[in-house]
Design goal:
Blueprint: H1 3-34, H2 38-66, H3 68-86, H4 92-120, H5 126-153, H6 158-162, H7 164-183, H8 212-235, H9 239-261, H10 275-291, H11 294-305, H12 310-316, H13 318-332, H14 340-361, H15 366-393, H16 400-427, H17 436-440, H18 443-446, H19 449-479
Helix pairs in contact: 1-2, 1-4, 1-5, 1-7, 1-11, 1-12, 2-3, 2-4, 2-8, 2-16, 3-4, 3-7, 5-12, 5-13, 8-9, 8-16, 10-15, 10-16, 10-19, 11-12, 13-15, 14-15, 14-19, 15-16, 16-19
Length: about 500
């Protein structure tokens, strides 16, 4: 076992996971600093995840061609440099542009993390290794809201990005030490016998074509869909939002056609011909749309509606993260006597009940909200942990990578679309000219009693919609055939990906 490689990947996974959860709590402070509008605020929140999700399949395939180790270290460097510059961004335009660079780095890291663990750790230690990695990302999500609130309240919003730099530099140096100096470096191709895992690098695998047309269509379709829905959130449902959404869906449809005809597609769409696999992927999509949304939405609620400070908001959203981490850890220890499908279904139903409770708790006191968030977190942790195991353990060995790639892309796209839809529902009662104040955390000072009541009502509607999505996901899983697919003896269980992997 290469403990040095595992330690480096675990630390880097912790860092990247910490990044998004600190940003969400600090978002109102950043919006106020730049006097950002509603559309810009949405882009600040979603750009890193949107870019990384759209690129993860392409850069994962690129890792097969150019070498995973070099791309992994390059991703860490890109993430660190972007974080350094983000803290010094002079305008909101520069901030969003630098988040694009950060998203590229995140994609390079996440697309190769699981492969580095899988290919450097012995088969009998894989579950333990992936469990440690998942624990690190869960810990980051647990600490992120409080860390982000503390930094925004004291040192300032720039440190939400700069805090990544020292740890990121340590990861880069560590990565160079355990990967590039042993796997790469000058003359690395002539010293294959010294590599940590020779098959991680180019020349050790058969060269397969890189599906650039498919990657471009996926990128344009995903970015266009999120941007079009954001227009509806910012300015109401108008011609621009409708035309943009329709065009983006059309691009994604062309992506499907291209992938069906590609000799080596980014996504093996033949997976969806299997009713078991397609049903489980649908359940994962709906589950992510329901259970991954509340962190950002509630961080805005505590600051904008209840007038809390960033630190207080970070502490008040913690019950969700705490219960998600605890139930995920307990679920990972569940023995084979309880089917993963049953545990996943239970988690989905529990999380949906929590969302329904949250819909009514938003008009109550902090204790009611905390209890509802704890219930959402318990269901989310149980669902995410057992769902990933269920999906990948049931996949044929030759399709494990393809299934995991489809899972990551589908769930993260669903989360982003659901986030924008929920924000559109929440901001609907507000006049277009003041919607940005929700993201700035100042709407509580401007809203009349009637407007405040309408805002609470829109939060209630939004959470009821997400609860319905969660129930639909549970129904899709319950109605999915129970036929067992051929199981691989070496089917790793990569941890859930950033954002927001609760």
């Amino acid at each position: 076992m290469r403990a040095d490689v595992l330690g480096m990947v675990v630390l880097a996974g912790f860092l990247v996971s910490l990044n998004w959860s600190t940003l969400y709590v600090a978002l109102p402070v950043i919006v106020r600093h730049f006097h950002a509008g509603t559309l810009a605020a949405t882009f600040i929140a979603l750009t890193p995840d949107c870019i990384s999700t759209a690129l993860v399949l392409v850069v994962g395939r690129l890792g097969d061609l150019a070498g995973r180790t070099r791309l992994y270290v390059l991703g860490l460097v890109s993430f660190v440099v972007a974080s350094l510059l983000l803290g010094a961004a002079p305008t909101v335009g520069w901030l969003i542009a630098l988040e694009v660079c950060e998203g590229i780095g995140i994609a390079l890291v996440w697309s190769n993390s699981a492969a580095l663990i899988r290919d450097t750790q012995p088969a009998e230690r894989l579950n333990w290794s992936f469990g440690l990695y998942a624990a690190a990302t869960s810990l980051a999500q647990l600490l992120g809201p409080t860390v982000g609130g503390l930094l925004a309240d004291t040192a300032g919003w720039r440190w939400v990005f700069w805090i990544n730099v020292p740890v990121g530099v340590a990861c880069v140096l560590w990565g160079r030490g355990v990967l590039l100096r042993q796997v790469g470096g000058p003359g690395w191709h002539r010293r294959a016998r010294h590599r940590v895992a020779p098959h991680l690098d180019a020349g050790q695998r058969p060269r397969r074509p890189l599906d650039l047309p498919g990657g471009a269509l996926l990128l344009v379709g995903m970015l266009g869909l999120v941007a079009s829905l954001s227009l509806a959130e910012s300015y109401g449902v108008g011609p621009g939002a409708l035309v943009g959404s329709a065009a983006s869906i059309g691009v994604l449809a062309v992506f499907v056609v291209v992938e069906l005809g590609a000799s080596d597609p980014l996504v093996d769409l033949s997976l969806f011909r299997d009713r078991v696999m397609s049903g489980r992927l649908l359940a994962g999509l709906l589950g992510a749309m329901a259970l991954w949304v509340p962190v950002l939405i509630m961080a805005l609620f505590f600051q904008a509606v209840q007038g809390r400070s960033p630190l207080a908001a970070g502490l008040e959203v913690m019950p969700l993260s705490v219960f998600a981490a605890v139930t995920a850890a307990l679920t990972a220890r569940v023995g084979s006597g309880i089917p993963r499908r049953t545990v996943t279904l239970t988690g989905g139903l529990l999380g949906s009940a929590g969302l329904a409770s949250l819909a009514f708790a938003v008009s109550g006191d902090i204790a009611e909200i905390a209890a509802a968030l704890a219930l959402v977190g318990a269901g989310s942790g149980m669902f995410s942990s057992s769902y990933t195991n269920m999906l990948l353990a049931g996949a044929p060995a030759e399709h494990t990578g393809a299934v995991n790639g489809a899972r990551l892309t589908i769930q993260n796209l669903g989360w982003m679309v659901s986030t924008v839809i929920l924000l559109t529902i929440v901001t609907a009662p507000l006049a277009v000219g003041v919607r940005h104040e929700l993201f700035a955390g100042t709407i509580s000072h401007r809203a009349s009693p009637a407007a405040a009541a309408a805002l609470i009502g829109s939060y209630r509607t939004g959470f009821l919609v997400t609860a319905a999505l969660g129930l639909a996901g549970s129904a899709a899983l319950a109605l999915c055939p129970r036929t067992r697919l051929r199981r691989s003896a070496r089917s790793p269980v990569p941890p859930p990906r950033h954002p927001p992997p609760l």
